Amino acid sequence: MAQRERVTTERMDRDAVSAAWPGLADPAHDSQRLFRQILGAMSEPGTLATLAVPAPPSDALGAALWGVVLTLCDLETRVWVAADLDSPALRQALAFHTGARITDDPASADFALLTHDAFDPQTPFAPGSDTYPDRATTLLVVVERLANAGPSMLSGPGIETIRALDIGDSPGCRALMDRLAANRASFPQGLDMIFGCGARLAAVPRSTRVRRADAKEVN
Amino acid sequence: MNGYNFAYLDEQTKRMIRRALLKAVAIPGYQVPFGGREMPMPYGWGTGGVQVTASILGADDILKVIDQGADDTTNAVSIRHFFQRVAGVETTTATTAADVIQTRHRIPETPLRAGQILVFQVPIPEPLRFIEPSEQETRLMHALEEYGVMHVKLYEDIARYGHIATTYAYPVKVDERYVMDPSPIPKFDNPKLDGNPALMLFGAGREKRLYAIPPYTRVESLDFEDHPFEIQRWEHACALCGSDHSYLDEVITDDQGGRMFVCSDTDYCQSRRGEVA
Ligand SMILES: [Zn+2]
């Protein structure tokens, strides 16, 4: 009797999680569609995409990055969550929808979830190695805004000439762009980043050259 | 089409390949290892390309498959039928109409546009393999940019033949960093790799490697200052469409030794004949 009651409560919890943190209605086709948008964003750095994903209850993460998590994470991936996004509800939703393992060690994370405010250049995310540069943490970062305007100018693979990207003015946003600019010096090691702002998304991989419009080449 | 095992692969395998593809795009020309799956076709039939296509293809995509430039060869037909069956996608032979093009040994003559994805079937992904059989060593050579041996190989050609004899799978350098095998395309197609608006993805099934050239990426064919890279040229024009700028195949027309040169890209040749007629 007691056992049956426990199972029922668990199911209610699970139903509550799935209702509050929506999954993909049609997983195979929705994840394909979202992946193509993410692939497009990574292939053409700085371009903006709007992802059609049911918004999670927490505004802090936003629909686009939740869509990235649902599309790319599963029980083979480790996810690091910054303190300002972390909550029992998010952990439950991650486990319920993806099976991803939460890790406290940023260096072992495949993906890191954070906001621009929480970005600390000293956090030891994995940059990969020169022999296996793919073994690097991909940062999924909530930013202040996403617009194709100054002050950061992007060039390199995926960009025909030059593309402007604005993720915000906060110290965290500036530090993120500085970190991306530093990727060139350690290439092929480096951090790839996917930025989210509500349902909008943009990506800047480590191959991108980043400079501020008001400065000379950073590297 | 039922979503379950859409495009043959299970969702977890697709996610694993998709994560690897993002890394491949982020590090242009670098070979990303992936946990490939067995496919219902033998190696040599493009299982690497098929797995990439299966991981990116959507129900609304229009797919084109070519082998040596032709849409109607056994390999191309069987892969096209495979995706019609497992994904229910629309297919085409027209380069301009395709969203995704899977290819073996050619890049279409018709210029690709932004948004299109070209998926290459790759037999041997490692350009340094013929020099160094050890994967550990070639990985180190890539890490250290130790590419002098590639030039030695090309130089030996010049010493022996007076010119660089390598005519297909001609090595390139991607974004001034990684030396990459462009798959066994003729070197005629190498210039199309440079600054192409389409995304190019490469899949090697046997060795389980993926790599990529993002759109608008600088891709140079290795050469020497005094022996610059050159593409093949023909004295003939295509016997069917009159093209003097496409890659030509020599075909035997009868048992009297009759022969002619025709475009290897059948869609290109047919569309040109359509315009002329
Ligand atoms: Zn022709």
Automatic annotation (TrEMBL), chain B:
<keyword id="KW-0479">Metal-binding</keyword>
<keyword id="KW-0408">Iron</keyword>
<protein>
    <recommendedName>
        <fullName>Alpha-D-ribose 1-methylphosphonate 5-phosphate C-P lyase</fullName>
        <ecNumber>4.7.1.1</ecNumber>
    </recommendedName>
</protein>
<keyword id="KW-0004">4Fe-4S</keyword>
<dbReference type="InterPro" id="IPR010306">
    <property type="entry name" value="PhnJ"/>
</dbReference>
<keyword id="KW-0949">S-adenosyl-L-methionine</keyword>
<keyword id="KW-0411">Iron-sulfur</keyword>
<comment type="similarity">
    <text>Belongs to the PhnJ family.</text>
</comment>
<comment type="function">
    <text>Catalyzes the breakage of the C-P bond in alpha-D-ribose 1-methylphosphonate 5-phosphate (PRPn) forming alpha-D-ribose.</text>
</comment>
<dbReference type="Pfam" id="PF06007">
    <property type="entry name" value="PhnJ"/>
</dbReference>
<keyword id="KW-0456">Lyase</keyword>
<dbReference type="GO" id="GO:0016829">
    <property type="term" value="F:lyase activity"/>
</dbReference>
